[in-house]
From TrEMBL:
It holds the Pfam family MarR_2. GO terms for molecular function: DNA-binding transcription factor activity. This is MarR family transcriptional regulator. It comes from the Bacteria. InterPro entries: HTH_MarR-typ, MarR/SlyA-like, WH-like_DNA-bd_sf, WH_DNA-bd_sf. GO terms for biological process: response to stress. Residues 1-114 form the HTH marR-type domain. Signal peptide: none annotated. PROSITE patterns: HTH_MARR_2 (PS50995). It comes from Saccharopolyspora karakumensis.
Amino acid sequence: MDGYGLPMASLDILLRLVRSPDSRMPMTKLAREAALSSGGFTKVADRLAKADLIRRVPSETDRRVTYAELTDHGLDVANRARETAAQVLREHVLTPLGQDDSRALAQAMRTLREANTPED
């Protein structure tokens, strides 16, 4: 997705956060879901924080947990990126497949997500 001036790994993080409750997620879980190493994720998070897209928020109940949370600016960018991603998906995937095949694809993706989502 062009137009946001961010690498795909950064956009992926923003999109994961915007879909999370309160637009935040524990940093370790976010790194795991994004398939980034601890060091790789730290670099991405540092760049996002410097760009005022996320902030690090310590857990009020567990000193070991730090959350990545979207800032207002990050929420705006993430929402625009989510709409762009949906538009690209509709144009390049769903429209060519047609209604029936799109439904079948959606069901297959749900099945794969359920089969591969680790229990927390």
